[in-house]
Write a structure and sequence with these properties.
There is one protein chain. By secondary structure, the protein is an alpha+beta fold. Helix 3 packs across helix 5, helix 24 runs antiparallel to helix 25 and helix 24 packs parallel to helix 27. The longest helix has 24 residues. The protein is globular and about 85 Å long. Bound molecules: phenylalanine and zinc ion.
Length: 873
């Protein structure tokens, strides 16, 4: 165990920056093997006393420091350690500091600061990568004007990009050339970006609402251009949407997107120079699935939307991360809903929240949407900050209504443009525009944990009144006890026996621990529809009967609650079956359940069927979701019961399923409409179901589908079904896939992923082959995720195998990656964090793995924080 405790940072310690920056000029001289950075910065004293100027800097070789032209001497004029350069408070109120550093991007496997990806130099500065480029007050509330000069070899780096506008280009000695960039808008250093390499681009233009033309470019490696057109369309759609929905116009003449293969996250919103993981830009039907297309569209929008929510208005400090991320996720979710389907979007967003964020919120790393302490900020780019953060914005939208919410965001943009602000500042705009008091609501930002909400209903036929009593409670989380009741908006309707809404949909404002709401003049016993659209991120339990749920599945006017009722019903049945199996008792699948599944299947034959919604309705809760409703979780046992139930459903409804599969088989040219994607989703869902049930046709149909596929969605679904088996068709298809796609990195990630997430008994042998394969590498995060995250997160039954072999496999990788890329290593710990939720034998093995990681020499702060907090809980 590490004995030197890393520093914890606290929100309560926030202080204004002691020095502000008027402007900075960065000069990059890029050579093979070393890059020289000269930073010339105009500082201004921002306090009365004589505080030192403290500059962050890591992984840097300091060459020289000059103040107003005078060379400074180490130890005499300034102090230096491996993280901080300290300069005693200069006598003058304004001064110019010139700092020269040398860095080695070619050797940087951490992928922050300046690094190389496939020969292209690129930067990643959020959250704290800028300090790996030069010494600076690396904090988001220091906003300034950047000019940048880049010089590099013209042959290897014909393209030299940075933020803002290109102002000069020219030749330098020895076959080198340079560009100069000026960003007219003040920004924090985490939004700085540089790209230098041999790239090609596709170009387009967008005419903004005030008639300005913006040049749009997407830059990629030679050969990838054809895969960029979908991203370009998504960019233009996003620009238009932000004008229409939020009145936000783009503010520069140029917008660049660069795609790189080695990237820790999805993408980055650097001012006018977004840098993307190739996985979120490149998309064409032969190599990208329908899901990939949707993600490209969503992430292009997300990064573009950051231009206003994040860049023009940024965060005062990193505790406020959700100020930009929660709001921007909310915006991209609404955009995707507008582009595709609102009901499906909501279901998928809630599904993600439940599978990923709810466990985080009840586990050892639970933290509020606005955390109040951290060791390593990179560990706080979490589903809580992003997805729950978006729910918290969505609730404010619900409370204010669409029109007033728009007034409030207008006020926010006007009041705080070019500022670094807090979550309080945002909520104040909501209050000022609406006149609402949101002080209790603000607890959503500061209290961790998912509230439990219980509903008890009562209908009195004599007085014709219906009442609903809502109770809320919030469990303790690390560092937080005795929490206060929250303001929970509960969207609510009452449905009569004929399926008609009996009241206008309303919002119940639950503000106390317990409240009863009563409705008069209700002539017949209604069925309540509670928490429509999932109007608050809570765990709802109700006294609804299975009959009520089946009624809502068919009759609720809210699409989300129709789906939700089916899921709750299925969960009840699954849990009963698992209980029975744990007690070695027999369990008969209820006929009502079988019939209700049959009615759902019958909808597939209606001409106006929404196949995307139907696919979601037919999907049984997965192992992860079921596990959350149980203690001492045994994922293998859950998997077995779930498979048995699916097998029985397939036996009972074999004819319908066969027909649905055949009716929806892709035929003819590929179409990328929402309808066509929905049809493929239904087809491939049924194929997966038949595979899970080991249906007699499953392998031959999958192989036929694989051989005939003209798009990656159908191909991968077929390959995935084959990968669950030990058939010769499996090896044939895998070999064919490899031969066909071996030069396409993203397609090859899928080849690794589909094997690592397969529920085969030989999985540990498969994994051993995958990580010794020539195409495997620990230095490309996408490839690492395609094996280890796929196995740890998408393959719970095998990852949690009682032997513990899965845990050891992941642990070895984490230890190895700790020395290569600590951010990626730390994220891989996720499936081990919740060790206490599993059966005692599994707990023991998982804890031993966490301890083995904790004992690793040179453990990074990133991994240390997650592992030590997991063990402590
Ligand atoms: N800010 C990026 C986003 O949400 C995510 C990111 C964080 C990327 C840190 C890189 C590093 O779009
Ligand atoms: Zn973001």
């Amino acid at each position: 165990m590490r004995t030197d405790m890393p520093q914890t940072f606290y929100l309560k310690d926030y202080q204004n920056p002691p020095f502000t920056v008027d402007q900075i000029h960065l000069d990059f001289d890029i050579f093979d093997g070393k890059t020289i950075v000269t930073a010339t910065t105009a500082y201004k004293k921002n306090h009365d006393g004589d505080l030192p100027l403290i500059l962050n800097g890591e992984h840097l070789d300091l060459i020289s420091v000059k103040i107003d032209g005078a060379l400074l001497t180490k130890d005499q004029d300034y102090q230096l350690d491996d993280k901080i350069l300290t300069l005693p408070c200069p006598a003058q109120d304004s001064f110019r500091l010139e700092i020269v550093t040398e860095i080695n991007p070619e050797k940087n496997t951490r992928l922050d600061g300046l690094y190389q990806s496939g020969g292209t130099y690129c930067t990643q500065c959020e959250a704290q990568g800028f300090r790996c480029i030069t010494y600076f007050q690396d904090r988001p509330d220091v906003m300034t004007y950047f000019t940048v000069r880049i010089t590099a070899d013209e042959k290897t780096c014909p393209v030299l990009l940075s933020n803002g506008n290109l102002t000069h280009t020219g030749k330098a000695a020895d076959g080198r050339h340079y560009t100069v960039w000026e960003d007219p808008i003040a920004k924090p250093c985490y939004l700085f970006a540089l790209v230098a390499g041999d790239l090609v681009h596709i170009a387009d233009t967008f005419k903004t609402m005030s008639g300005k033309n913006v040049d749009l470019r997407i830059c990629v490696r030679e050969g990838d251009q054809d895969q960029c057109h979908f991203a370009m369309k998504a960019l233009k759609d996003s620009m238009k949407w932000d004008e229409e929905k939020y009145g936000r116009e783009y503010d520069l003449d140029l917008f660049n997107i660069v795609a790189v293969s080695d990237f820790n996250m999805g993408a980055m919103e650097n001012k006018s120079l977004n840098i993307f993981n190739t996985a979120l830009v490149l998309a064409q039907p032969e190599t990208a699935t329908d899901r990939d297309f949707e993600r490209v569209e969503a992430v292009i929008a997300h990064e573009y939307f950051h231009n206003w929510t994040g860049n023009r208005i940024t965060c005062r400090d990193w505790f406020q991360l959700s100020l930009k991320e929660g709001l921007t996720v909310f915006r991209d979710q609404c955009f995707s809903g507008d582009m595709n389907s609102h009901a499906v979007q909501r279901i998928d967003d809630v599904d993600l929240l439940r599978r990923m964020q709810f466990p985080e919120d009840s586990g050892p790393l639970a933290h509020p949407v606005r955390p109040d302490n951290y060791i390593e900020i990179n560990n706080f780019y979490t589903v809580t900050v992003y997805e729950k953060g978006s729910e918290v914005i969505r609730m404010q939208h619900t409370l204010l209504g669409d029109e007033t919410f728009r007034k409030a965001t207008d006020l926010y943009f006007e009041r705080h443009d070019e500022q670094a602000v807090t979550c309080e500042d945002f909520v104040k705009c909501m209050e000022d525009a609406s006149g609402e008091d949101l002080s209790q609501f603000f607890l959503w930002y500061t209290q961790a944990g998912t509230p439990a909400l219980n509903a008890v209903t009562n209908y009195d036929a004599g007085t014709k009144t219906f009442s609903i009593t809502l109770r809320q409670s919030l469990a303790d989380t690390p560092g937080q006890t005795n929490k206060k009741p929250m303001h929970i908006p509960v969207r609510f309707g009452l449905i009569g026996p004929d399926g008609q809404d009996l009241i206008d949909e309303t919002i119940l404002h639950l503000k106390q621990a317990e409240q009863t709401f009563t409705f008069d003049n209700i002539d017949e016993k209604p069925v309540p529809s509670i928490l429509r659209g999932f109007s608050a991120p809570v765990k709802l339990s109700t006294d609804l009967s299975n009959d009520d749920l089946r009624f809502l599945m068919v009759n609720d006017t809210d699409g989300f609650n129709r789906w939700e009722s089916g899921q709750i019903y299925a969960l009840r049945v699954l849990n009963e079956a698992i209980d029975a199996s744990e007690k070695d008792q027999d369990f008969d699948l209820p006929q009502d359940f079988i019939d209700s599944y049959g009615s759902l299947l019958a909808q597939a034959f209606d001409t106006d069927c929404d196949k995307a919604l139907l696919t979601r309705a037919l999907s049984l809760p997965d192992i992860t979701v079921i596990g959350q409703h149980r203690s001492n979780v045994n994922p293998q046992a859950i998997d077995n019961v779930r498979r048995e139930i699916i097998t029985e459903l397939v036996e009972k409804h074999g004819d319908a399923l066969r027909k649905i599969y055949q009716d929806n088989r892709s035929a003819g040219a590929f179409i990328n409409s929402f309808e066509a994607r929905s049809k493929r989703a239904l087809q491939n869902f049924v194929l997966g179901l038949l595979g899970t049930a080991k249906h007699e046709n499953a392998v031959s149909w999958a192989k036929t589908q694989y051989d005939a596929a003209n798009n990656m969605t159908d191909r991968l679904a077929a390959l995935s079904a084959l990968c669950q088996t030990d058939s010769s068709e499996r090896s044939e298809a895998l070999a064919h896939y490899y031969d066909t796609f071996k030069t396409h990195q993203l397609a090859m990630d899928k080849w690794f992923n589909v094997q690592a997430s397969a529920g085969r008994d030989q999985i540990m042998d498969d994994l051993a082959l995958l990580i010794t394969h020539d195409d495997f590498t620990y230095t490309t995060p996408n490839r690492v995720r395609s094996v280890f995250s796929a196995f740890g997160m998408l393959n719970p039954a095998k990852f949690h195998d009682e032997s513990g072999a899965g845990y050891d496999f992941l642990t070895d990788a984490i230890i190895k990656l700790n020395g290569i890329n600590p951010q990626i290593a730390s994220r891989l710990v996720t499936p081990l964090r919740d060790w206490k939720r599993y059966s005692p034998d599994r707990q023991e093995k998982m804890r031993a793995c966490l301890e083995r990681i904790a004992e690793t020499p040179n453990l990074s702060d990133n991994v240390f924080e997650i592992v030590s907090k997991s063990l402590k809980a």
